[in-house]
């Protein structure tokens, strides 16, 4: 295998092992076996399990979500929520996210790394969407992008992970209208 | 110990063990030791670990939150969010909730039990708050209590568990105003 192929194989093996057995029971041996590489190939790249998992997961969490300007804040929101709800329902993500959150509650280093990766990504997304809406005159100047993140992603996550109710187009439309109303009503 | 005291001791032991070692590593032996009772005292009450943990956790999740009518929807919301954010930040809850969510992602029986317990409680809360607001003329007739739950609890949970930003009075006030705006703007 080429060097880049090995990295991809390891990354896929880590994600699948995380989904199947969770961080606590994940072993470098099992990752190497699954990726079809030797353990040295792993130790050449990362010095331990924590470092390996955190780098791979952060890379994915920080990937840019392509968000074309749909022309309205409600449209932008609906598109973002559609993408996020698909991502959260993905077979691998829906196993890995709760597992890593449980690890984060026990291990401050995991909590800080994940928080850092998610913050960067979410802040950038919210600034883009809110910025566009302010320019269009849809939201008041000074709308808080952090509050926007909580309102855009929190209800979706709650519904998927906690109430476990299905999310359809109608719900996304209703939620997008609600969040637009929320940001108009929030004092900046 | 009296019968009721034994049940309380077991319940406390289960919650503390859950917080410390998580569901996966929790053992009936450790719970008995911690509660100062014999294993038979546990097996007289529950036939296995899953049944024991689910009954105890559901009981707590279903406990009524006392919610006095503050006279306005924004006031009711702020009070609810204050109580929920304190509960989610509680030392034991902040360990147990992510752990059980991770278990729920692996075990459909855990997912269904937790979902059932939370749904009943949240639905009742939302119906009460939304009902009062509709009576006061603050929200339109037909406002969806399920959407209200997602909007009232999702952003708080996201902020506490995922972005891990602090929640102060100012934020709760801002969020309460936003959620009120959201429910006014959502098509019923």
UniProtKB/TrEMBL annotation, chains A, B:
<dbReference type="InterPro" id="IPR050109">
    <property type="entry name" value="HTH-type_TetR-like_transc_reg"/>
</dbReference>
<dbReference type="GO" id="GO:0003700">
    <property type="term" value="F:DNA-binding transcription factor activity"/>
</dbReference>
<keyword id="KW-0804">Transcription</keyword>
<feature type="domain" description="HTH tetR-type">
    <location>
        <begin position="4"/>
        <end position="64"/>
    </location>
</feature>
<dbReference type="InterPro" id="IPR011075">
    <property type="entry name" value="TetR_C"/>
</dbReference>
<dbReference type="InterPro" id="IPR001647">
    <property type="entry name" value="HTH_TetR"/>
</dbReference>
<keyword id="KW-0238">DNA-binding</keyword>
<feature type="DNA-binding region" description="H-T-H motif">
    <location>
        <begin position="27"/>
        <end position="46"/>
    </location>
</feature>
<dbReference type="InterPro" id="IPR009057">
    <property type="entry name" value="Homeodomain-like_sf"/>
</dbReference>
<dbReference type="InterPro" id="IPR023772">
    <property type="entry name" value="DNA-bd_HTH_TetR-type_CS"/>
</dbReference>
<dbReference type="Pfam" id="PF16859">
    <property type="entry name" value="TetR_C_11"/>
</dbReference>
<dbReference type="Pfam" id="PF00440">
    <property type="entry name" value="TetR_N"/>
</dbReference>
<dbReference type="GO" id="GO:0000976">
    <property type="term" value="F:transcription cis-regulatory region binding"/>
</dbReference>
<dbReference type="InterPro" id="IPR036271">
    <property type="entry name" value="Tet_transcr_reg_TetR-rel_C_sf"/>
</dbReference>
<keyword id="KW-0805">Transcription regulation</keyword>
<protein>
    <submittedName>
        <fullName>TetR family transcriptional regulator</fullName>
    </submittedName>
</protein>
């Amino acid at each position: 295998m080429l060097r880049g192929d090995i990295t991809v194989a390891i990354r896929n093996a880590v994600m699948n092992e995380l989904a199947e057995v969770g961080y606590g029971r994940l072993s470098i041996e099992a990752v190497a076996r699954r990726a079809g590489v030797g353990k040295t190939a792993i130790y050449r790249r990362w010095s331990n399990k924590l470092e390996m998992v955190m780098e791979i997961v952060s890379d994915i969490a920080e990937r840019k979500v392509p968000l074309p300007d749909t022309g309205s804040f409600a449209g932008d929101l609906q598109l973002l929520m559609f993408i996020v709800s698909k991502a959260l329902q993905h077979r691998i993500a829906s196993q890995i996210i709760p597992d890593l959150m449980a690890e984060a509650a026990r291990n401050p280093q995991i909590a800080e790394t994940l928080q850092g990766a998610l913050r960067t990504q979410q802040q950038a997304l919210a600034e883009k969407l809110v910025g566009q809406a302010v320019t269009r005159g849809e939201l008041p100047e000074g709308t808080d992008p952090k509050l926007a993140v909580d309102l855009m992603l929190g209800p979706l996550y709650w519904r998927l992970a906690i109430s476990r109710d299905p999310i359809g187009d109608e719900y996304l439309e209703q939620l997008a209208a609600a969040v637009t109303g929320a940001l108009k009503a929030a004092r900046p």
